Amino acid sequence: MIALEVVTDHAATGDGGNAWGGHQCRIVRTSDGVFTAYTVSGKNDMSREWLLAWRSDGKWKVIASGLAGREPVNLLASPDGTLHLIGWPEGKAHRWTGKPKTGKITLMESPVPGLSEGHWPYGSAGIDKNGRLCVLSSEGEKPGAFRWAMLDPKTNEWTGGIVAQEYRHCYTYVLPMSAGGLALVANRDVRWETLGYKKPKDQFEYVFNQFSGWRSTNPATEPLRKIFALEEKPTQRDPVVLCSVQDAYLDAKGRFHVCYRRAGRGTGWNEESRYAVFSADGKPQSDVTAPWGAGLYCRVFQDDRGVFYFLGSDGVIYSGGTDGVSFKNKIRLKLDRNLVDVPGFGISASRTGTAPGNIVDVVFQSEGSAKWIYGRILLYGSEEQPVRAKH
Predict the structure, then answer these.
(1) Within the chain, what is the greatest distance between any pair of CA atoms?
(2) CA-to-CA dists, residue 346 to 17, 193, 300, angstroms
(3) DSSP class of 343
(4) Dihedral of the alpha carbons of 45, 100, 7, 176, in degrees to the nearest 10
(5) What is the Cα 297 distance to its own chain's centre?
(6) How much is the pTM?
(7) How confident is the model at residue 2 (pLDDT cuts 50, 70, 90)?
(8) In whole angstroms, what is the distance from residue 210 CA to residue 338 CA?
(9) SS3 178
(10) How far from 73 is each of 56, 243, 244, 295, CA to CA, in Å?
(11) Per-residue pLDDT, 368
């Protein structure tokens, strides 16, 4: 990893700050360079502002800003380098889009139709290799629902819909597929009492003991269908449970790769960081304990050779083969004593629109501070070797 760079020391902290969520797209790499989006304090916690920063000659420059709302914004990139920011100013979904030029950018703002309104939309976004952009929000509790909107890059028109659920699911990883398909992975997010459980003493009001995956080859004509779910149920003797997704990745074979945290009967009531793989139709293929020393907040991705990597919040990266299960080679990153805050690294993953290559870019907040920190991890080859612009 290169020497860490502080993008800003004024990043928003606290509930809804930059260390909240983990499902958002935070950083992208295009032919124009590396960009990250983060929020700073506004007039109140419901009116934070977003800043877009560009790395040039080893320095970070803010090139655009806007009203974000409460939650962190999503940053994505089209194949031609056009940038998209998604936020919820005044509780309504908006998109800012534009292409950098000569060190500057002009962004056009427009509403995203059909999504939930309010300050807690749990906004998510993803983009495929063809530039098809999808934005999603969550609402309700029992029942719950997803609302999604997908932008066709050829017609510049939105389609959308509602996915009804028995219970609300949030912190959604949005994984658009080529040819108009869509996959999702999300946590069930409801109060303990809603599930008929008694809330254990000193526990958070909401329980996260199940995550699920959905898939559709075309959500406009074929409803998104839940194809897998993993749950850890409490018992009267041991009521504290956890089964919460921390990252999700869809590979070229359509398999779901899920990093998650689990505690309950299946783990001897000890909290574990785990890694599961599901087939394209939702069948479990593997479920293993994460490599020792990875940390509780992990990411999984591939380079342009198809090699898988497992990045842990404790500052280690494991490389493996192309099977997506075996991680044998461990490298400790130089974090200069900066502890990676919840929910771990934001990475330039394929769902952000970043083409896989020999480098992955990361950002993170450290120990609840207002510092937004950047690093670049060399996956193979040399720094001089260009990042391959292919998916």
Answers:
(1) 63
(2) 14, 33, 11
(3) T
(4) 70
(5) 12
(6) 0.95
(7) low
(8) 31
(9) helix
(10) 22, 25, 22, 25
(11) 83
Looking at the DSSP assignment, which residues form a beta bridge with residue 302? 308
H/E element holding 203? Answer: none
Helix (H) or strand (E) holding 164, with range, is: strand 157-165
DSSP label of 151: E
Mean pLDDT along residues 265-270: 78
Cis peptide bond upstream of 343, omega within 30: yes
Cα distance between residue 54 and residue 62, in whole Å = 6
- The dihedral over CA atoms of 279, 282, 285, 289, expressed in degrees to the nearest 10, equals 120
In the block, tokens 């920011």 appear at: 85
Q: CATH: 1.20.1250.20, 2.20.28.90, 3.30.360.10, 2.130.10.10. Which one for 5-378? A: 2.130.10.10
Here the tokens at position 244 are 């919460």
Integer Cα distance of 313 and 343 in angstroms:
8
If you ran DSSP here, which 8-state letter would residue 14 be given? S
Whole-number Å distance between alpha carbons of 60 and 65 = 14
Round to whole Å and give the CA distance between 4 and 346: 14
SS3 278: strand
Residue 52 structure tokens:
């877009």
Q: 196-232 pLDDT, tens per residue?
A: 999 999 999 999 999 999 999 999 999 999 999 999 9
pLDDT digits (tens, 9 = 90+) for 283-322: 999 999 988 788 889 999 999 999 999 999 999 999 988 8
Sequence ranges of the domains in the chain? 5-378
What would the two tokens of residue 187 be?
């946590």
